[in-house]
């Protein structure tokens, strides 16, 4: 198979940049164009809820590559002008959006009134500015992003409440035993935990937020609220493109959405042959690993993408590393260290099979344990963890932005037939 | 090729160790990157470039064209 004469990448964060870099590393010499919705040069998202929000890093430090490395890539970056549509049949592209954090009812009416979501560098700057003068902040969302934001806000000295429907933060990812330890860490550090009840709305006064309303009727007073209740894959701009859109861009085992069109990162829902199901991962490492796989497949390698999912989170002094899928109903066995020492490796076993390995303040040993027992298969990954990467679609394109999408484009044949275990 | 690592950025994922174990390791106590060879031989360059590209915190910097 001949490589395409040019590649267009819609999305300029970790997955988009990673695809461009992987293409060059694999020897591709054709034209590469990268479209970015935001005006910023490619930057990293995990520090936004930690170092950047805390003010420990200037925003510049979150940049993924220095200027000379971007220049050496010999790719055209068109930033600040998001792709708005992909019209495969007409072979034209118009340029609109990234991924979108979910919101609470009434949130739009309080826009600019100290209600925040956190996905972009600009979001982080705006939230930080409000937290610096906050009297009482509420973080809504007991997943990784909400828990990280609560921890960072607390280290800034803010009186913060963490609210969410689960009995402990990240219980869906960690299971009760480890999630309870995380809850204990937050409580010790002074975070008020208001868990077990979902938030259902916001209260406001004079256009500014005054509280977060819970499903049981209680209102948590707040002069700053941050809503971290997950994100929806941003596929609206692909409506009518001919691609199959269902909780992401549905792809085959090679991350191919249609002939010449691939999806990478948060937006890609591909067929993982190792577990026989469609998967979508919102993890930072997935963005670059999938980017490398797609770059290879664009160049004709034809290798299925079968990663072991991995993510990490830093909250206060807890550095937690997760490989595979430590599902909440798994049996948990500590195989190194001790929970009471807050330094341990835990194996998660479900139906007789090890599906995940979690480490608490012991990353190297965690990785080695995971390599020994997760290699060759990936545990069932967790849908709906914190958003990390960009939406990305790469396709063959001529230099003049007229897309050479084959006329025989058909998405129907790409639907995976396996049961969808990711739901 | 000359390698520098930013320990403050490193999240201890260990991806670099998996890809280029002759060049990178992790500290036992906290998993932070250990640079074993700041100017590796040419046969390591491809693996080092891959490690730098996939590092989830962009903590590995390469300079020099070799």
UniProtKB/TrEMBL annotation, chain B:
PANTHER family: FERREDOXIN (PTHR36923:SF3). This is Ferredoxin. The keyword Transport applies. InterPro entries: 3Fe4S_ferredoxin (IPR001080), Fe-S_cluster_ET (IPR051269). GO terms for molecular function: 3 iron, 4 sulfur cluster binding; electron transfer activity; iron ion binding. Ferredoxins are iron-sulfur proteins that transfer electrons in a wide variety of metabolic reactions. Keywords: 3Fe-4S, Electron transport, Iron, Iron-sulfur, Metal-binding, Transport. Its cofactor is [3Fe-4S] cluster.
């Amino acid at each position: 198979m001949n490589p395409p004469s040019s590649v267009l990448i819609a999305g300029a964060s970790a997955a988009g940049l990673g695809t461009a870099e992987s293409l060059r590393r694999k020897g591709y010499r054709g034209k590469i164009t990268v479209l970015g919705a935001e005006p910023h040069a490619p930057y990293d998202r995990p520090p936004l809820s930690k170092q950047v929000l805390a003010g420990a890093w200037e925003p510049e430090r979150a940049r993924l590559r220095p200027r000379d490395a971007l220049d050496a890539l010999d790719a055209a970056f068109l930033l600040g002008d998001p792709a708005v549509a992909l019209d495969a049949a007409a072979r034209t592209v118009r340029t609109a959006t990234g991924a979108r954090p979910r919101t609470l009812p009434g949130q739009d009416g309080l826009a600019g009134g100290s209600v925040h979501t956190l996905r972009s560098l600009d979001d982080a700057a705006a939230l930080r500015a409000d937290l610096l003068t906050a009297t009482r902040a509420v973080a809504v969302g007991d997943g990784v992003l909400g828990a990280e934001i609560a921890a960072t806000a607390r280290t800034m000295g803010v009186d913060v409440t963490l609210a969410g429907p689960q009995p402990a933060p990240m219980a869906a990812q960690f299971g009760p035993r480890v999630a309870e330890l995380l809850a204990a860490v937050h409580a010790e550090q002074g975070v008020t935990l208001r868990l077990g009840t979902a938030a259902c709305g916001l209260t406001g006064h004079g256009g500014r937020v005054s509280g977060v309303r819970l499903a049981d009727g209680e209102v948590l007073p707040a002069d700053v609220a941050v809503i971290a209740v997950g994100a929806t894959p941003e596929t609206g701009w692909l409506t009518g493109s001919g691609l199959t859109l269902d909780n992401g861009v549905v792809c085959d085992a090679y991350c191919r959405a249609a002939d010449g069109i691939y999806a990478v990162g948060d937006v890609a829902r591909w067929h993982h042959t190792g577990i026989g199901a469609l998967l979508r991962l919102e993890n930072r490492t997935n963005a670059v690993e999938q980017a490398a796989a797609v770059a290879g497949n664009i160049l004709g390698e034809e290798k299925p993408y079968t990663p072991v999912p991995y993510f990490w989170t830093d909250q206060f002094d807890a550095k937690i590393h997760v490989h595979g899928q430590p599902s909440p109903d798994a049996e948990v066995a500590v195989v190194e260290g001790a929970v009471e020492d807050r330094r341990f490796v835990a194996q998660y076993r479900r139906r007789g099979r090890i599906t995940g390995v979690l480490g608490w303040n012991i990353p190297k040993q965690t990785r080695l344990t995971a390599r020994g027992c997760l290699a060759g298969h990936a545990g069932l990954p967790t849908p709906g963890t914190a958003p990390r990467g960009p939406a990305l679609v790469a396709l063959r394109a001529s230099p003049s932005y007229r897309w050479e999408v084959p006329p025989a484009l058909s998405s129907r044949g790409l639907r995976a037939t396996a049961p969808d275990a990711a739901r | 090729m000359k390698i520098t690592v930013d320990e403050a950025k490193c999240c201890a994922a260990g991806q670099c160790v998996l890809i280029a174990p002759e060049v990178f390791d992790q500290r036992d106590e906290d998993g932070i990157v250990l640079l074993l060879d700041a100017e590796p031989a040419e046969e390591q360059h491809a693996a080092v470039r891959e490690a730098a590209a996939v590092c989830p915190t962009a903590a590995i910097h390469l300079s020099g064209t070799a």
